[in-house]
Amino acid sequence: MSTTTYSGSDLQVQTHFAPPAVLRAACGAAAGLIAGLLYWVLLTSQNVSPLMSASDIPGDLLVHLVLSTLTGIIFALTFGKLVITPGAGIMWGVVFGLMWWFVGPLTLFPIFNGQPVTWTIGAAQDAFPLLTGLAVSFGAAMGLIYLTLAALFAGKLNPQNLRNIGLTFVGLAVSGALAGLLGGLVFGGWMSRVQFFPLVAQILQTDSADAGYALHILISVIIGATFGVLFRADIRGLGTSIAWGFAYGFIWWILGALTLMPVFLGVGVQWSLGVAQENFGSLVGHIVYGLILGLSYALIVRTYQILFVDSDPLNREPEGPGTRNVRALGLGIIASVTGGLAFTLVMVATNTLPSVAGVVGGNAALVGFVVHMSISAIIGATYGLLFQRNVHTYGSALSWGIVFGLVWWFIGPLTLMPLILSGSLAWNLDAATANFPSLIGHMLYGGFLAVTFRWLTERFDPVRQRALPLNKRYQPPQPQQQTPTAAALWTLTLLLSLVLVLLLGTGA
Amino acid sequence: MTNNNYRIRQIIIGSIIGILTALLSGVAATILIGQSAINMLGGSDDLLIAWLIHLVLGAGIGATYAYVFPTRSDDGYAQSTMSGLVYGVLMWVLLVLNLIPLVMGRGPQWRVEEAVALFPALVTYMLQGVLLGIGCRLVFSVTNLSLDEIEDEAPAPIEVQDRIVILGGGFAGVELAQHLEHYFEDHPETEIALVSNTNHLLFTPMLSEVTSGGVEERHITPPLRTFFKRVRVMRGEPTAVDFENQIVRFATGVSTEPSLNYTHLVFALGSVPNFFGNKNIEANAFVFKSLTDAVDIRNHIIDILERADTEPDPEHRRTLLTFVVVGGGFAGIELIGSLNDLVRGSLWYFPNIDPEEVRLILIHARDRVLPELSESLGRYAQEKMEARGIEFILNARASDAGPDFLKIGEDQVIPTRTLIWTAGNVPNPALQLCGLETDKRGAVIVDEMLRVRGHENVWAIGDNAIVPDVITGETAPPTAQYAQREGKTLAYNIHALMHGQPTKQFAHRSQGTLAVIGHQTAVAEVGGFKFSGLFAWFMWRGIYISKLPTMEKRIRVLLDWVVDVFFPRDLASLQTTLQPQTPPAQPTDRVADNQPAVLD
Fold it and tell me: Mind listing the pLDDT tens digit for each residue in A319-346?
């Protein structure tokens, strides 16, 4: 059993432990059983069978629990070694739930139920409640329960450790709460426009918008605090923290808007496609909230480290941050040209360049092109700045690039563009459906940008630098240690953005 | 295993796994959905063609996946599965929504309803991606093709096969080394060694600003060691060259005299001040070539002002307050302009000095200053500087000097304690030690390719060489601009020669000439256009800040300039001991033994 510490905060968080396979399997079985039960209760309360069977036979529960236990064991044996932090537990759990949704509800269950497998959007829409349930109530819950059990049996939750963890968590929670407050204020702007606060206030048995606003801010702060506590060990940089915030925002859409709030309002869990479509605006709001939360949290922690944590003169990078960051900005701008041109193809095909020109008050396609390339240069520069240490391979560069492109789809055509052009947000299903080509464009943009950026920065690659004869002792800026959860994060953001828009969009 | 071999094997294995996973996912889709799935994946109604396209694309997906997601041996299957899944989704976007429809003559499928119709293909690609991730992880770990196999491998010791030795770390040498580093980026077996007597590159265009205090001295001297990634930097001076055995020796101050074998040897040693054999002037004048010279002059000027402020004897005070610069080229003009700013700008803090007592004199052997520029600009510079209190003595030659005087011609004596010599340069005398063919000034004669006459692998660039310019048909002037161009051309030629390619002649047309003549005033001649005054001064600053090497130094100089706008000049002298007072000497005692200096 090995223990590694991730430093970088005022207190080091012990995170890494690897229980033996038998213990992992046992913890996974227990976690799968408990999470499966929770999933069953929440899903059947909506008259939906977790096995998608038409009949309501009591034996279904037994089959479901056995299946949940088995999937728990599979989860523990495949992903268990990676579940070393609460954040990893949640993320791998959600991704496992999503994968199981494709394997179980979309493929195996129809076969067992004697129905044809189609993998069509219709079949996916029919299984939508299971998607939300498997992602959060089964997947995320299973990940967290598994981590708790594994840590408990591995002897990590002893009083000394708990005291240390508790002390650490206070600072992390405060940082997260501050970031959550910022995100909540922005999300609150949209909620106020659509007069959502009286609805929120009904939780407190009142219809006062002020009470709703206060409750919303309180919830934002609490979610922010939990973000800080859960993901501290996973967040390594400003860029990647945006993706963490994105994923967490999405999870809270299911947990908050589709689960807890309807329960508090007395209408029970609402995981149906129709309710999800009605709450599409809230989904974008949660995601934008998450983006702000992630970025602010990383900034707060970074500032804290700079101000209060000792620097390390012995391991100082030969290249100062000035040179490195200016280079990253410049190369990001150059790299944005390929991404911008790839995106232009989509814009020309869908004739959206004139509307982009509207940002500066014009309507000519050429003006739109100039505006578009300028914006892509700015976004390219921010990619360079935020992800410069996460482009160690073409794969990681590409994945973060696509995630960054997707993030900008939510910020750009759904938020900033309509805000500039018409003064209102386009956080609705129609706008998202209409902007689907732009989603593809943003993905292409992110991909081309990232691959070009990686190509441009290859000559500064640490491996390449180390091979040079004169640099035997020279340690160039190290790539940010990739958390083992990064791959889960890419999957989550990519699948969610794409699949969700497809699922929700066609029903509009 | 070399990086390239590793990559090639990875890609080949990746493409094979890609075909297999495409086959498996295609079979699964056919069993579960039917053959329409293959038609959708291959974009063709013909099943055979669709299968073929699907498998070929599978090979491509596998090969690119293996390249962009190189696995590490400690990566778990979970990460590989996820990266495969992500890649599958991405390929669905790229291929199914874009490439296949485009090739098949349909437009890209970007609308929601179009993408929805292709949803089964998304699920198939996700399955394919997952299988690909697992397959690559498995095969790469078995075949030792994980990324860390090469990453963690200690770099193999590189045996130097060729060595290019550059003597001199000025503009020419540094430019040459930088371009060689670029040309030989993928040839670590070719060593590039730079031997310089300073460990920094001196950005001489801003040297006069160091004297006036406008710019800190370290801000115009980027250290050579931070310039390069792989150039071997040595501090030293050449002492001897054995051309037959291709060995160059150095004096470096260490216990044994080091030597280097070379494949190509480049002389870029620059020049040193030329006193034309006048020992008295040499003994009593400051020179203005190095950073130390600039700092010494500055300390001296401030020290002189301090002394003058307390000096009761008017005659002695006038001697102190007379500053003479000999030489009206760029260096002399820029220097006296900045000295004038420094001295006259500081008088406010020296209340006992009468401004009328201050004299700044420029002595020049020709009838106009700045001969490198057109006559009108030279006249403008002179008039402007005269209006600011600088005296000009033209068509005059310095013949003798002492600690407190300068003699001009046969009988004109100027009492002064500050004599600065910028009147001539001569190629570095170290060249003489090497036995190369030189002209009468001591400059190495090279051909159009910059090769030293009579030597196959010895080259010379910069101020220490007579370089023919094929564009003008004349000798290239000894300026930084030409030195850098010569360095660039020579890097090309050496690389070409070592790779059996044709070399090229040196050809460069001057991009322009600029000189600062004092506070916020400059003269410039760029592209045949003449500029003067504040605009030219902005041009000067803009151009030279962009040419200053390294971003760090640019920012530092920029900050110096900004601070200089808002705050008075720093008058701190770094000279901490009081200089002994020397009684005024009788000028006539010293003149007889010396020959008049000849100015070029």
Answer: 777 778 888 999 999 999 999 998 998 8
Number of domains forming the structure of chain A: 3
CB-CB contact of B337 with B385 (8 Å): yes
Q: In whole angstroms, what separates CA B427 from the centre of its chain?
A: 22
- Between B248 and B579, the higher pLDDT residue: B248
Q: Cβ atoms within 10 A of the Cβ of B266, count?
A: 30
Measured between alpha carbons, how far is B527 from A389 in angstroms, rounded to an integer? 44
Opening angle at CA B38, ends B36 and B43, nearest 5: 95
One domain for residues B166 and B255: yes
pLDDT greater than 70 at residue A474:
no
The three-state secondary structure class of A187 is helix
Pair (B283, B192) in one structural domain: no
Q: A 326-385 residues with CB below 8 A of B?
A: 326, 345-346, 349-350
Query: Tokens representing B193?
Result: 């060694």
Looking at residue B595, its pLDDT comes to 36
* Number of structural domains chain B divides into: 3
Tally of CB atoms within 10 A around B270: 26
Distance CA A26, CA A30 (A): 6
Q: Report chain A residues whose CB lies below 8 A from the CB of B549.
A: none
Q: Is residue A11 part of a domain?
A: no
Examine the fold and report which residue of A126, A153, A180 is the final residue of a domain before the chain moves on: A153
Same-domain status, B439 and B394? no
**Where in B113-213 does DSSP place strands (E)?**
162-167, 190-196
Residues A486, A415 share a domain? yes
Contacts of residue A492, Cβ cutoff 8 Å, sequence gap at least 6: A91, A94, A95, A98, A247, A250
**Strand partners for B522:** B516, B533
Angle between helices B119-142 and B3-32 (to 10 degrees): 140
What is the distance between the alpha carbons of residues B556 and B551, in angstroms, rounded to a whole number? 9
**ipTM here:** 0.83
Closest by alpha carbon to B177, among B438, B465, B497, B483?
B483
Range of the domain at B141: 3-151
* pLDDT value of position B347: 92
Task: For residue A345, give the nearest of A414, A421, A448, A430 by alpha carbon.
Answer: A448
pLDDT at A169 over 80: no
> Which of B126, B151, B176 is the last residue before a domain boundary?
B151
* Residues paired with B162 in a beta bridge: B190
Mapped to the 3 state alphabet, what secondary structure does A211-277 carry?
A: HHHHHHHHHHHHHHHHHHHHHCCCCCCHHHHHHHHHHHHHHHHHHHHHHHHHHHCCCCCCCCHHHHH
Residues B338 and B415 grouped into a single domain:
yes
Q: What is the CATH number of the domain that holds B362?
A: 3.50.50.100
Distance CA A405, CA A439 (A): 8
Note the residue count of chain B.
Answer: 600
**Of A89, A124, A153, at which residue does a domain stop?**
A153
Cross-chain CB nearest to A436 (options B85, B111, B120): B111
- Cα–Cα distance between A242 and A248 in angstroms, integer? 10
Largest CA distance in chain A: 73
Strand partners of residue B240:
B249
Q: Is B13 found in the same domain as B145? A: yes
| DSSP bridge partners of B401 | B406
Asked if B123 and A102 come within 8 Å (Cβ–Cβ), the reply is: yes
Query: Does B249 share its domain with B314?
Result: no
* Residues near A71 by beta carbon (within 8 Å), at least 6 away in sequence: A32, A36, A96, A100
Residue A472 CB neighbour total at 10 angstroms: 11
Q: Please, what is the angle between helix A238-252 and helix A86-103, to 10°?
A: 60
Interface contact B120-A120, CB threshold 8 A = yes
Smallest Cα distance from B106 to chain A, Å = 12
- DSSP-derived letter for residue B596 is P
Nearest by CB to A495, from B67, B89, B151: name it.
B89
Measured distance CA(B381)–CA(B422) in Å, rounded = 18
DSSP reduced 3-state for A211:
helix
